Amino acid sequence: MRNSGFSLRQAQARGFGVQGSVRKDEGGRRKDEENRATNRGTPTHPSSFILHPFARGGWATRALLVFVAALASSIAFSVVVARAQDVPTDQPASKPAIRFTYVDVFVDSKDQPLASYQFELAAEKGDVKIVGIEGGEHAAFKVPPYYDPAAMSRDHVIIAAFNTGKDLPKGKTRVARVHVQINGETRPEYVIRLTVAASSKGQPISGASATVSEGDSK
User: Fold this and answer.
1) If DSSP codes are grouped into helix, strand and coil, which group holds residue 12?
2) 132 and 46 in one domain?
3) Domain that holds residue 23
């Protein structure tokens, strides 16, 4: 009896080797795809994509470099601004000059004994502030005279004094010393007005006058 079966080699020779060909074709396509993926630089394993996120074109790398450059520029600018603010100015704000001095007030009673006086002193020019008042040089007016305490913060003051004793000055005598604070470089100009000058008899002294003299500055 003739054997009706085909050998594997005869079947492949007559065109029945399709399954093997299909497997060969599928294997070739898979290998081609792997080669194309390798040539593109794309990892074939999913875990490789996680470990190498910059493989596709380098966009993430460029974005990171731009961010780092911007951050460095911002830090450098902040440092420059901070150093500029720390540099002291060459011309500090100037303050007005302040000096202290005094003004002596004299009353000339001619040949009459001076028992009482009253005058008004003011600074018409300059920034002047009265800071203290003393008495005169004669024993009769050694005690500080009467004055308005509110005038201590202004540039004018009314001062008065009297003495009922017998030892009274005659002629020109210093009756008071007014201490002042002068702000700025403007030299003050003082004006004095004598309103009362009386003798021991209570009579006005005719021809009496008052003058001022600025002392040494400190």
Assistant:
1) helix
2) no
3) 19-86
pLDDT tens across 66-103, in order?
655 665 666 655 555 555 555 555 555 667 789 999 99
Nearest Cα neighbor of 199 from 173, 164, 159 is 164
Provide mean pLDDT across the span 138-155.
87
Same domain flag for 115 and 201: yes
Q: What is the CATH number of the domain that holds 205?
A: 2.60.40.680
9 lies in some domain:
no
**pLDDT tens readout for residues 18-70:** 444 444 455 555 555 555 555 554 444 444 444 444 444 465 666 666 655 66
Q: How sure is the predictor about 126, in pLDDT bands with cuts at 50, 70 and 90?
A: confident
Question: Are 119 and 36 contained in the same domain?
Answer: no
What pTM did the predictor assign? 0.57
Tell me, yes or no, whether 55 lies in a domain.
yes
Q: Are residues 137 and 107 in the same domain?
A: yes
